[in-house]
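Weekly structure sync, notes
Attendees: PL, DS, HV (note-taker this week)

Item 1: Dihydrofolate reductase family protein
DS walked through the input record. Source organism listed as Xenorhabdus anantnagensis. Sequence as pasted into the shared doc:
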Amino acid sequence: MSKLIYYVAATMDGYIATKDHELDWLYDCPPGDDATPYDEFYQNIGATIMGAGTYEWIMKNAAGEWPYQDIPSFVLSSRNLTLSADINAIVTQDNPKNIAAKARNAAKGKDVWVIGGGKTAASFADAGELQQLFITTIPVFLGSGIPVFPVSQAIHVIPNKQRYLYSGAFETIMDIKLTQ
Ligand SMILES: NC(=O)c1ccc[n+]([C@@H]2O[C@H](COP(=O)([O-])OP(=O)(O)OC[C@H]3O[C@@H](n4cnc5c(N)ncnc54)[C@H](OP(=O)(O)O)[C@@H]3O)[C@@H](O)[C@H]2O)c1
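Item 1 (cont.): predicted structure, written out as tokens:
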């Protein structure tokens, strides 16, 4: 069955961006050539989900090019957010359960990438709708920033795979334990 996967890069102290939404720490210390290639991950993805914060960050930093045009994206916002014209994405105010069902359906048998940010990924985990975490941990501490996974309850995980990279980064894949 199609999985919802939160695939993200984080610091050693658990942040995905500085408080000012900067990612310089990641660009300054890329995971390296032995990291799982992005294309290998992306070829199994049939839809994406992201929060308004991540959508706005992408629009500001992706030089006008929507990076996921080949697959449908769901952008969560409680505001009347107007998306850039002609991008393959919709804004939704639905709850995580319904969005997960719609995204799985749209992904046509492939997995769904929960791009982030932390708040969005956590809300899907809290709703029991996230199946896997794929975190690339970069060897840097920031001391403060946007939290990687601010869940509102304990989420137990089963380690699936861990790989240390030459850069000092490491990839951790964890399956989320189902609760009854
Ligand atoms: N390091 C990485 O790999 C990586 C990956 C992704 C993102 N990021 C960074 O993460 C930052 C954004 O993360 P974030 O955690 O602050 O924000 P986010 O999860 O991207 O967006 C949160 C916003 O989405 C809207 N929303 C509506 N329904 C929601 C729901 N059920 N759950 C959660 N959000 C909902 C809310 O905005 P409204 O006010 O519109 O309702 C909320 O403030 C950016 O700086 C981005 O660059 C880093």
